[in-house]
Specification:
about 190 residues; alpha/beta; Transcription Regulator spoIIAA; 2 domains; two-stranded antiparallel ribbon; about 25% strand; Bact_StressResp_Reg; STAS_dom_sf; STAS_dom; STAS domain-containing protein
């Protein structure tokens, strides 16, 4: 190859790295300034490493999709969106919720964001405080936040942690939250 000739001889081995769908990511290469004869074992090793890298890339892609689904931002009008928090919440997920909430609120130019916690299964103490701080962060962006679906154990934990509710409106459920900002459900 030209690259090895320019280095004054040597050896090069290259094996393509593919995503699971067959799309090429790139090439795994090994190069040495000295000439080397590659055996079938060397080639098999490079193929195995390329397959492993392809699998890691697929796992990373799947993880990114899961992370996006773990924060389902749902616009319901030009100025209102709902963020249902479902499942378990840890510090990493709280950070992701904060990041997506702030960026999507700005992108959609929201006036209100309703955070619905009725699907929340469990949350650690640090995440409780950080989740409630989202209201403060949103208020700095001019977005009014409404919290719904707070379960008794989360309410007790928030009080024990001396959480600040100053920038949060709290309603029992989604229907009350929507009603408080002038929305109503009309049967057709």
């Amino acid at each position: 190859m030209t690259v090895t000739k320019n280095l004054g001889g040597g050896s090069l081995i290259g094996v393509p790295i593919y995503y699971g769908n067959g799309e090429n990511f790139g090439t795994l290469c090994g190069m040495d300034l000295r000439p080397h004869h590659f055996t079938e074992d060397h080639i098999d090793l490079f193929k195995a490493m390329a397959n492993l890298l392809g699998n890691v890339l697929d796992l990373e892609s799947a993880n990114n999709k899961i992370q996006t689904l773990s924060v389902p931002f749902v616009p319901i009008s030009d100025e209102v969106a709902i963020l249902p928090i479902i499942g378990d919440v840890d510090e990493e997920r709280t950070d992701r919720i904060m990041e997506i909430t702030l960026s999507e609120s700005v992108n959609h130019n929201l006036e209100y964001l309703i955070l619905d916690l009725s699907g929340l299964i469990s949350i650690d103490s640090n995440s409780t405080v950080n989740l409630l701080k989202i209201g403060n962060s949103l208020s700095l962006l001019g977005v009014k936040s409404i919290l719904t679906g707070i379960r008794p154990e989360l309410a007790l934990r928030a009080i024990r942690e001396n959480s600040d509710f100053e920038n949060l409106t709290v309603k029992a459920n989604l229907k009350q939250a929507l009603s408080s900002i002038g929305y109503s459900i009309v049967k057709s």
